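Q: What structure does this chain adopt?
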Amino acid sequence: MTNPHLSQLPPAAKLLGREVLRIDEDGTAHLRFFAPPEFANRHGTVQGGLVSAMLDSATMTPLLAQLAQDRIALTVKLETEFLRPAPLGELTARSWLLTRDERGATTRGELLGPGGTVVAAATATLRILPRRP
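A:
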């Protein structure tokens, strides 16, 4: 990844085992996450807050991939839909831009379990700001 927004892995992304696999020509981002046993809830699946964190990271990616270095983006709203229990282990995500202007964007993402089953989805509202020195 040559984009500095995506090549520098923040601590939270490391915790989630995030890896940006690719950004398609249409801007769709493809990512991989890893949920260790420590992410389990009492049912043995990924705790919902961690599912949301993965989707927060995923839905930010297509916007970060196209931002100039002097800009940052922050999530101001994340609506998560839990569709099925998310299993521990490797999960993948895909996310894409819905709308964008100079001040903000809306993105959509899906978190997938083994076999490509969508386990959760989210819509994010993001604010674009100048990067502070």
